[in-house]
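Researcher: Next sequence.
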Amino acid sequence: MNNELSDNDLVKQVQAGNREAMSQLYQRHRPAIYRYALSRVYNQQVAQDIVGEIFLRVVTYLPKYKVTGAPFTAWLFRIAHNTLITMAKKEGHFQQLPIETVEKPEYSGDHPDQLVEFQLNKEWIWAGLEQIDENQREVVILRFLVGLSLKETAHALEKSIGAVKTLQHRGILALRVAMNVKGAGVK
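Model: Next structure:
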């Protein structure tokens, strides 16, 4: 198992019939896809089911995937985004639990002071995200929770980089207002 291969190298191996390469892609991207799904449905079991559906679609569409200028993660998150939209339409929107009852991704660092700060801010941030425009929330989640680049986010959402920058800026401002934060700017 070689974790140093690029996504595109792994895709080529999958397309050539290497099942281990698909396993590596899954292991590499599952945590971010799970965080993304959880950020949309606020339910761990439903998020896990969605991750399974997303990767089922990835396996289905991967033979036809072509390397372009867009990063593989953009293609992957476009599938995730479209899967969530399709499932929400089919289900008539997901049942969302009150923010206070939801388990969010846990902090995995080693520093106790960071853990305390994380725990104090976690619910506050999620509650703030619920209050902002859906398109802005999508960009903020993909950029900062999932960690996609501007280019990856733009490709995943089928928007221009300029549109993503605008949504990100407005989303951060809206989040700041929702969370009643003043001061330091986020760029």
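Model: The CA atoms of residues 42 and 96 lie 6 Å apart. Residues 19-41 form the longest helix (23 residues).
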